[in-house]
Amino acid sequence: MALETVARLDEVPIGSRKLVKIGNTKILLFHLETGFYATQAYCPHLLAPLKSGKLLEGHILQCPFHRAQFDITTGEVLRWANFPPGIQALNLLRSEKCLTTYPVIIDGDAIRVDIR
Question: What is the CATH number of domain 3-114?
Fold first, then answer.
């Protein structure tokens, strides 16, 4: 496991998210009631930035562009892109793809992520 420190505990309060970079990889770090989670920073549909995506039901991240929804705890696709009308035609070429998630380890007051 190649862990990288990405933040301190006090930098990411419960209910917030933080965009961090490890090498050339941008990830989103989330602090939910159930713990810390890290995901890729871009939607796997068309690589739209997810930083401003809505959190629904506490752990469901909705892409702000085409409304794909992902469980940030597992990366599972809950709903593929469905907005605006007509985007479904593009979905014939862009099949569903899960959100990449990364293990998060708390080490003292350091938040560490393994992107390997």
Answer: 2.102.10.10
